[in-house]
């Protein structure tokens, strides 16, 4: 596999705010303790309290990259389009921000002169320290995640029965009338009514939900004004309708196979062309539901 192909492979971004904060805290703490312990780059004369400032700069730069930039450039930071190459590029941007912050902090302390050569010196040092371990860590995480989810996808797919599936353990096999899904607006207006077995999936679109149905031998799409949280609440009592991701609901009975990549599991649904992602936190749960 060529380097270009590797860099274009999907990459798992930290999903929750907690995960991102912990990563910022962990890396900045490591930087601070490393500099305190070894005093590289002429830091031997710098007091310990001031060295901790470099850890704070690392935290601010990472928080800016993890929270501010994705909030402004939402489309560019969508996980569906995130790759190992983008992760490495953004990590380099973060490293350069840290280098710039370290330069401003050190010159403010009076240990270096404020000039272009000193600025370049700090950037080169920061890149030299960060570029190699950063690239290796990204590629290792991508490879480890891909192997994990490919294995899980293969195991889940083996348990799926394409004709008749039991999606809940110990569920009784019985003939029952199809459940009806009725979605209403806050003022009681009927927005959608269908049989549960006609429902394929739903995808969030801001404050709307795009619902995919298979009815009368063809697939159709309905757009209704309803948040995904509200839709999940409205369909909570409907058997096998499952919120696999914050932006997606699926009918478990429509799953034909499961794929995987480094970002997690992807569901293939009967009558729907696009793969539906599963939140990594829910991969174990959906695995048990489909067992």
Compute the separation of the termini in Å.
33 Å
**Spatial strand sequence of the major β-sheet:** 5-4-3-7-6
The dominant shape is elongated
Helix and strand content put the structural class at alpha+beta
- Along the chain, the helix and strand elements come as HHHHHEEEEEHEEEEEH
The pLDDT mean sits at: 88
β-sheet strand percentage: 15-25%
Query: What kind of sheet is the major sheet?
Result: 5 strands, antiparallel
Percent helix: 40-55%
Describe this structure in words.
A hairpin with a 2-residue loop joins β3 and β4. This protein has seven helices and ten strands. The protein has a five-stranded antiparallel sheet, covered by helices on one side. By secondary structure, it is of the alpha+beta class. α3 (48-72) crosses α4 (84-109).
Provide tags for this entry.
291 residues, alpha+beta, 5-stranded antiparallel beta sheet, 3-stranded antiparallel beta sheet, 7 helices, 47% helix, elongated
């Amino acid at each position: 596999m060529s380097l270009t192909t590797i860099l274009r492979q999907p990459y798992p971004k930290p999903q929750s705010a907690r995960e991102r904060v912990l990563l910022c805290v962990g890396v900045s703490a490591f930087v601070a303790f490393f500099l305190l312990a070894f005093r590289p780059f002429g830091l031997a004369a710098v007091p310990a309290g001031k060295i901790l400032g470099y850890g704070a700069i690392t935290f601010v730069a990472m928080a800016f990259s993890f929270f501010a930039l994705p909030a402004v450039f939402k489309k560019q930071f969508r996980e569906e389009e995130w790759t190992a190459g983008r992760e490495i590029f953004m990590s380099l941007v973060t490293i350069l921000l840290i280098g710039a912050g370290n330069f401003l902090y050190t010159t403010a302390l009076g240990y270096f002169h404020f000039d272009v050569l000193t600025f370049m010196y700090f950037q080169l040092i920061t890149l030299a320290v960060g570029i190699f371990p950063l690239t290796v860590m990204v590629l290792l995480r991508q490879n480890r995640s891909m192997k994990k989810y490919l294995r899980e996808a293969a195991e889940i797919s083996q348990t799926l029965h394409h004709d008749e599936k039991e999606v809940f353990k110990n569920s009784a096999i019985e003939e029952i009338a199809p459940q009806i899904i009725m979605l209403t607006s806050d003022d009681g207006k009927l927005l959608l009514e269908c049989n549960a077995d006609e429902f394929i999936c739903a995808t969030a679109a801001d404050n709307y939900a795009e619902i995919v149905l298979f009815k009368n031998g063809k697939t159709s799409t309905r757009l209704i004004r309803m948040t995904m949280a509200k839709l999940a609440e409205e369909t909570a009592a409907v058997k096998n309708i499952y919120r696999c991701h914050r932006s997606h609901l699926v009918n478990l009975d429509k799953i034909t196979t499961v794929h995987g990549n480094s970002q997690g599991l992807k569901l293939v649904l009967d009558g729907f062309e696009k793969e539906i992602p599963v939140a990594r936190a829910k991969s174990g749960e959906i695995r048990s539901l489909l067992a």
